[in-house]
Amino acid sequence: MQVTVIGAGLAGSEAAWQLAKRGIPVTLREMKPQKMTPAHKTADFAELVCSNSLRGAGLENAVGLLKEELRRLGSIILEAADATRVEAGGALAVDRHGFSAYVTEKIRSHPLITVEEGEVTELPEGEVVIATGPLTSDAFAARLAALFGEGTTLNFFDAAAPLVTFDSIDMSRAWFASRYDKGTADYVNCSLDEEEYRAFWQELCHAQEAEVHGFEDKHVFEGCMPVEVMARRGEDTLRYGPLKPRGLKDPATGREPYAVVQLRKDNAEGSIYNLVGFQTHLKFGEQKRVFSMIPALKNAEYVRYGVMHRNTYLDGPRLLDRYYRLKKEPRLTFAGQMTGVEGYVESTASGFLAAVELSRRLRGLAPINFPDVTAIGALGLYVSNESVTNFQPMNINFGIIPPLGYKVKGKRNKNAVLSQRSLEVIDSLREEILR
Q1: Of 161, 209, 321, 333, which is most buried, counting CB atoms within 10 Å of its CB?
Q2: Please, are residues 50 and 139 in contact by the beta-carbon 8 Å criterion?
Q3: Range 162-305: architecture per CATH
Q4: Cut 0.85: pTM above it
């Protein structure tokens, strides 16, 4: 009953953990540290290569529901996130390095998990979970493409935001607050007046980009849009996006600023902050020049510049079933962003479901078939839905969960009721799922 899991990102780590918890021996193959990509910085598992936020924490958010489902079902990724949480208002953000170190220690110390380092270029025999993620090596991606056939793998580009030291932020032009004073004051807010914003926007639109092979604006995933690409869509696009001032009041003026750049804590000590929504593929020198036009960041010290990288994903509706198994060769299961789910929590959920169902099959148990009223189930059913013709990476959202069938006043209230319905189903299945 040995299973090989390829890739120790969030999905692979979750899958290996869930299999081992159910008594299935696992060989976890990970190419780091022998082979790294431009986006990877450490040898740890479950490395967060973009934001350190797992997004909204409340049950009025679909991703908040997904996190709570995973938390109740014993997810190692949610356990690590809760243990290394840093304050971020209504979001669940983590200490980037502490989070990965927590997962790595848990995985490496489990007696049923054997870690083997080095790049995988061929498919192992037996049961395999492929969780090589959006940064799959060229050699292994070519092997998978040959397996799937022409036209069945897709790719897009996404980007990571820069990190700056807190001590280098000019706090005379910034203040701590959360939007609409929700939760605690966890964000550093950097204001720009109209003149400052227009000058910044002009330079951002014309800044020099780093070369990324095959990159075109149309191939960027909307959920990870580079800030310069967003800027080119119109002068006020940023003010309705990552630089929106709504819900924030500058204590220096008592008024809502023209635009606001928010910074979020990136580690538990609060010594490093990331520029929220500033994913970018500008040249490093251009990042420093243009972002220094934000008054509070005039003398900012960058500990990491933004980077752009290629993501690879599958045409799930044509290739995968609801358990993330390859239809034409069910011994191969996929997990993570490669399946077409988008986001840290969604990747974790795919690894969780894939491992639960694989372990049940290997032990002769019937599948759980997570219902579509649960976030975990809805995500798997969307990825494998053959009626979806123009498949794109998908974050969890209430639009793919069946409606209540009756009216509830107010969107937040309706979403809260949807979440309650989902969690009641999860609780009713919990004993069987954990089996």
Answers
A1: 333
A2: no
A3: Beta Barrel (2.40)
A4: no
